[in-house]
Design goal:
With 262 residues, this protein is mainly alpha-helical. 77% of the residues lie in helices and 0% in strands.
Length: 262
């Protein structure tokens, strides 16, 4: 769409990119609200399940491989459909050629790093949309991070499947170049961001990774701290009883902070 606006975007690449970024979040919104599986979001969700003991490593590897292959197949099929509709020529074909040249001209490590930046933001969009409870909240949660990564120019492997697939149909890029110079490094960067930066970090802060080393002594000490806080709070007014409930449901380290702040 951004390339097929004569007189508006032909001589204005900044506006062309802005329109592209404004429309791009629709893709993730449709996928999230219909229960689809996207490789980038799965790169965070599946490892998170592993960290929390909800999935096995073999199952995580299986869903990652299947989502990557499924996204690639679906993207190429939709590229064929776009070609069939004769929407891959003229200004659109020229724009795609520019995108393809830009995406395969960088070093492997640069594309890898841009893949990390991309899925850091995509995974956060998925994380935030899961916190929203209505359609408007999910739209806002998805829209802001996704449009931002497009404007920045980060690398999103599933989107590149489609864009480079269209470029291949116009003979602007070869399959080998698309695979080696973009799809693989972008997918690896996407995985690192989702599995380590987002899923790993939040599991450490709020889940199993940050507390898996607790032993019986730690649990016993935590109970003693909770009892101390309970005795302290019981001497106060009933208005402060919410502190008791909070201390009963938090981890030992948080209980120490509560006691100190009191």
């Amino acid at each position: 769409i951004s390339a097929r606006m004569p007189g508006l975007t032909n001589e204005n690449p900044g506006l062309k990119t802005l329109i592209f970024a404004c429309l791009f979040p629709v893709n993730l919104l449709i996928i999230m609200l219909t229960g689809g599986i996207l490789y980038t979001g799965t790169s965070a969700a599946a490892p998170a399940a592993l960290y929390e003991g909800k999935a096995k490593a073999i199952d995580v590897a299986r869903v990652l491989v299947l989502s990557w292959c499924g996204n690639l197949l679906g993207s190429l099929l939709f590229a064929l459909f776009t070609q069939w509709c004769e929407l891959n020529g003229d200004a659109t074909g020229q724009f795609l050629a520019e995108i393809a040249h830009n995406k395969i001209s960088r070093r492997f490590d640069v594309t890898f790093a841009k893949g990390i930046g991309c899925n850091w933001m995509v995974s956060m969009a998925v994380f935030l949309s899961g916190q929203a409870r209505d359609f408007t909240g999910k739209c806002v949660a998805i829209y802001l991070p996704i449009s931002a990564f497009v404007m920045i120019g980060f690398e999103h492997a599933p989107a590149n499947f489609y864009l480079l697939g269209l470029a291949m149909m116009n003979a602007d890029v070869s399959l080998v170049n698309a695979l080696v110079k973009n799809w693989i490094p972008a997918a690896l960067g996407n995985f690192v961001a989702g599995a380590l930066i987002v899923a790993g970090t939040y599991s450490y802060f709020y889940g199993h990774l940050g507390h898996f080393q607790q032993g019986p002594a730690d649990l016993e000490a935590g109970e003693d701290e909770a009892n101390d806080v309970e005795a302290f709070v019981s001497g106060k007014t009933k208005q402060n009883s919410r502190w008791l409930q909070l201390c009963r449901t938090t981890q030992p380290s948080a209980r120490r902070s509560i006691t100190a702040s009191w």
